[in-house]
Amino acid sequence: MNRLLALLKKEFIQMRRDRLTLVILLIMPVVQLIIYGFAINTDVKHLKTAVFDQSLSAESRELLNSFTASEYFDLIYIEDSFEDVNRRVDAGDAKVGVIIPPDLEENLKHNRQTPVQVIVDATDSQSAASAIAAAQSIGNVKSQEALQEKYGLHSSQTSLYDVRVRAWYNQDFVTAFYMVPGIIGVVLTMTMVLITSMAIVREKENGTMEQLIVSPLRPWELILGKIIPYIFVGYAQITIALFAGIIVFNVPVRGSITLLYVLSSLFITASLSLGVLISSCSKTQMQAIQMGVFVLLPSIMLSGFIFPRESMPDFFYYLGNLLPLTYYLQILRGILLKGNGLEIMWPQVMALVIFILLTLGASIKKFVKTLN
């Protein structure tokens, strides 16, 4: 019994010394609980909406107020042409576009149907389904209110507001079209971050760090030497996943494959630089793995991989903006499903470049301190 007590005392002392691992183990359940409890919400509301109101009448303003009052639509962008609405939806700035015709007021006065076009970005089938159901319901309710106000009638046969929904990019709501690009990003995040997170700490544990210290390698050269080989591994993973997605799931490729590969290099580098930063901050491989998993969980939950980001509270929505996977998913889905070009996706590109510069700079600075 004394021997067992001595061993237990030794383990508790070791646990107290390894404070980083202990903190991660205690914080991770709390973080998981908060993310699952608050960030995951399948009731998608507050979809960013672009509006082209050609009527500019009291009736059109009343209709738009109904969209806003439903809480499913946030009228963020007021545009002057159909092309502007199209551009907003293509870029992902807006999930919904509403086009009101110029003769809305005249048609309602003469009890004629008026087509109101609602464009929905169906790359996210869950958000699209909520938007379509809400828009059609608003059209029906407004039609009934107009008939009741004019004639005191209730009719399910007459629809004065003919809401015509157009689902773009994924008209059949095929789940694989939405999930396969997301899986590519998640697989890259898992492998790139977790593998490189052990790169430097492995040298420490194997006793080869001293050899690197006395070598003529500069810190930035050593960091790049740890990153560059895995870039080719990342490209191999992308190629295999794309072939599988196209052949097995018939995922469309509407944009440039060359552009996809070029921009993928930014995300791969961002993930690898994050892994190297974790490795520079870790003392053991176990710590590196735990910190990598700690980063991986928010990346999966807050990036829009599974759950629409529009349904998240503001804090978690903006927290997702700090994750490189958020921007890479927008690039993947934009190229594969929408056929977007660089002129539309430059904000995502700039976000990845800034992330790379910050994490690589922090990694080099931390590694210099380690050498000293």
How would you describe what is shown here?
- The protein contains 15 helices and five strands.
- The chain is α/β, with parallel strands linked by helices.
- It has two domains: 47-168, abc type-2 transporter like domain (abc type-2 transporter like fold, 3-Layer(aba) Sandwich); 174-371, no CATH class.
- It has a five-stranded mixed β-sheet with strand order 2-1-3-4-5, with helices on both faces.
- Helix 6 (125-151) links the parallel strand 4 (114-121) and strand 5.
- Helix 7 (175-196) packs antiparallel against helix 10 (219-249).
- The radius of gyration is 26 Å and the shape is elongated.
Fill in the keyword field for this structure.
single chain; about 375 residues; alpha/beta; abc type-2 transporter like fold; 2 domains; 5-stranded mixed sheet; elongated
